[in-house]
Amino acid sequence: MQSTCQKKERMMNKITKILRLSESLKREKELPFRAAPIVRFAKNIEVDSKTGCWRWGASLNNAGYGNFNQSSAHRFIYEFVFGSISDKLQIDHLCRNRRCCNPNHLEMVTASENIWRGFKCRKSKCTNH
After folding, report:
1. Whose CB among 1, 35, 97, 126 lies 3.0–4.6 Å from 31's, allowing a Cys bridge?
2. Which helix (H) or strand (E) holds 106?
3. Model confidence pTM above 0.85
4. Distance from C-alpha of 38 to C-alpha of 119, rounded to nearest angstrom
């Protein structure tokens, strides 16, 4: 069984690899045919140096979330880094930025908690969108 420190270190290693992959792919014109999903994902993020958000640079759905692999980009990366998402829970953007895919800005919460946080943000005129 892994300790909490070992799990956190493994998670941070995954995040570091994704960022390095993203940077190296910026120099590539095209991806190889049938590239692995994480490679295609990394090609579509841009890191905002001010907020730390990983802005999704590809298609968005009507609600403003990134589309990826017949799902949401933020859900894909959350599962890639942390593991499966419970059917009863949602992924909340702690930064309140729907295009953000930074796993450190995402948290699994109940639907009511997600709605409450969004309400508090709108009420306080949260500007991190």
Report:
1. 35
2. strand 106-109
3. no
4. 32
Q: Report the pLDDT value the prediction gives residue 85, as an integer from 0 to 100.
A: 95
pLDDT digits (tens, 9 = 90+) for 23-70: 777 666 666 667 788 888 998 999 999 999 999 999 999 999 999 988
- Residue length of the chain: 129
List beta partners, residue 67.
72
Instruction: Count, in order, helices (H) and strands (E) of the chain.
Output: 4, 6
Helix (H, G, I), strand (E, B) or coil at 112: helix
Tokens of 42: 């990394």
- In the predicted structure, residue 78 carries a pLDDT above the cut 70: yes
- Quick one: which of 62, 60, 83 has its CA closest to 73? 60
* Helix (H) or strand (E) segment spanning residue 43: helix 37-43
Q: Which CATH number fits domain 4-123: 2.60.40, 3.30.70, 2.60.270, 3.90.75?
A: 3.90.75
DSSP category for residue 51: T
